[in-house]
Specification:
Number of strands: 6
Strand order of the largest sheet: 5-4-3-6
Distance between the termini: 45 Å
Structural class: alpha/beta
Helix content: 25-40%
Largest sheet: 4 strands, mixed
Shape: globular
Length: 167
């Protein structure tokens, strides 16, 4: 979604649970995609997942788009995720031996590269759930957005607002 993620997220989750015949209180954990991706969308989804998990008393587990796309595809050590302006996020390697960088689409390695955009969104979501379930036994670390580059928004050039305290 280009806009309206915050307004749509909770109703969408309610619809998803209803379709699956699942109630919030029966969840063992909350899995969430941590990106890389849209700065605002990541902050919204991760904050919502952490809040829901805290309210339910269950762990929140973050899964990168790289891991979700490459789930059960060990034959491709390179994974690319679309980025703005003709760029992609490239993860090279597997497991803990990985590096992530922002490159031009023309720099994508020609061999053994998985394009996350070719993985159907429903598959990515299912893979996030499967990976989250597999990570349940690990010590929980609150998920955080994966930012590979700084946000496009620039800090305000206006002086900060002065708050007067009349008390």
């Amino acid at each position: 979604m280009a806009r309206g993620q915050a307004e749509r997220l909770m109703p969408m989750l309610e619809e998803l649970l209803e379709e699956a015949g699942v109630e919030w209180r029966t969840l063992d954990a909350v899995g969430v995609g941590i990106g890389p991706g849209n700065f605002t969308g990541l902050r919204i989804s991760v904050a919502a997942a952490r809040g829901i998990a805290q309210g339910l008393g269950v762990p929140a587990i973050g899964v990168s788009t790289f891991d979700a796309a490459a789930f059960q595809t060990a034959d491709r050590p390179h994974v690319v995720v679309p980025a703005p302006r003709g760029m992609v996020y490239l993860r090279q390697g597997h497991g803990t031996d990985t590096s992530v960088k922002l490159i031009s689409e023309v720099q994508i390695p020609s061999k053994n590269t998985l394009r996350a955009a070719e993985v159907p969104p429903t598959t990515l979501v299912c893979n996030i759930a499967k990976i989250s379930a597999a990570r349940l036994h690990l010590a929980p670390v609150p998920p955080a957005p994966m930012y590979v580059r700084p946000a496009d928004a620039a800090p305000s050039s206006e002086p900060p607002v002065v708050i007067l305290d009349d008390a």
